[in-house]
Amino acid sequence: MTLAGNIRAHRFADDINARAATYTISNGESDGKLSQLDLWNSVWGRIRRTVPYYKRLIEEGRLPEHFRSWDEFMDRMPISNRSTLKNEGKGMASTERPCDFLRITGGSTAEPIQIPAWHSEVRYTEPDMWLGRSWYGVSPASRLFLLWGHSHLLGAGIKGWLNARKRMVLDRMLGYFRFSAYDLRPEVLGRAALKLIRFKPDYLIGYSIALDLFASANTSLREELRALGMKMAVGAAEGFPSSESEARLGDLFGCPIAMEYGAVETGLMAHTHPSGGYRVYWRTYFMEAERRCPESHNMTVRITNLYPRCTPLVRYEIGDEIETWEHKEERILGLESFKRVVGRCNDYVLLEDGARIHSEAFTHAVRACPVIGSYQVVQSGTHLCIRYTSDVPLNGSHISQIRERLGKIHLALGRMEFERVDRLMQTVAGKTRMVIKN
User: Which residues of the chain does CATH 3.40.50.12780 include?
Assistant: First the structure.
């Protein structure tokens, strides 16, 4: 533990305890729904006054100024998604005060959008994150090893250098160690294991695919890794590629394997619990699940924020599916727990020298380019090309900036080719994957 870590743990202690108490105070399902409705109407009071898109819907008589029930909310409130945020633009953001930063999405859908946000959103939701980790014995003072993609290392010039140095100093103060998960070759993951053993963290967080490949590359270090006595290893940003991944990782590390469920747009929405399944942060998000296919156990997820946001997410369809504990309902409102997230697995590309590059490397290199509407990495043998949609072609400056970022990850990526297309390739199910291998 570091001094800064201990200070942070002390600062968050009351918030974590209060949040834990908040989630345990419930007199049954109907009571919980009513408390969520009260929270929503409080937030809605600000949204209807300050968010142009919803203000217009009220003026047109399509939405009320107050919701009497969740049934009324379902009947009258339109579903939103990334396309809504893109098409409505600034009309989706609050005029209450300027935004503090932009959430830039990417991920497996490869359709980047920029979402105005306030720092207060992070402060509000952070206790949820620490509550979930506390279920496994982790606190804000615990030492953390990150097997992650670090976009701050891709910045150019003096600003990029300063951001990287700043991040390193902050990590050292907090007791964090970051190891890049962009390159997933076995020898690189072997070096990550040695760094992990030397650092002696209390817990580990990594891309789920990176952790799965880490387990394959480091079976010979099983005893040394188990001797660390970590409290948990967390798979994040994507699902595990195999049904056996969690068991293999649990055996390798000798600790529980946890998972976070969140998105760039939302932050953390749910966390696994040692007793099984996911617990939803239902005081932060109202979650609804709907079964689109009667024969399927999977349900589509929509969320509504119950706290103030610069860009409110209302009946927002993330694009994910979950499996619930019961398979009878066609729709569940105010979901408090579920069994698992279905699919949601990113991919990697294989380079000529054997390097395996996690798909998030492309997200972090491309998402800052304002011209690109959506994109896809297409691999044919060892040939790589970024196909993208855009109103105008990329110019030389755009291409050189993206290549410069990618070249910092691997020299071969600095020669990436680009192709503008009318639409991206989709699966039979109509989904757009970030990585296509021909």
Answer: 3-120+278-342
- The string of pLDDT tens digits covering residues 388-400 is 888 888 988 888 8
pLDDT, one tens digit per residue, over 175-199 is 899 998 888 888 999 999 999 999 9
pTM exceeding 0.85 = no
List CB contacts of 207: < 8 A, sequence separation 6 or more: 147, 148, 149, 181, 235, 236, 237, 238, 346, 358, 360
Condensed to tens digits (0 to 9), the pLDDT of residues 167-181 reads: 677 778 888 999 988
Instruction: Enter the CATH code of domain 3-120+278-342.
Output: 3.40.50.12780
Instruction: Look at residues 427, 433, 434 and name the one whose alpha carbon lies nearest to residue 360.
Output: 434
Signed CA dihedral, 13, 14, 19, 23: sign only: positive
User: Using CA atoms, how far apart are residues 316 and 259, in angstroms rounded to an integer?
Assistant: 22
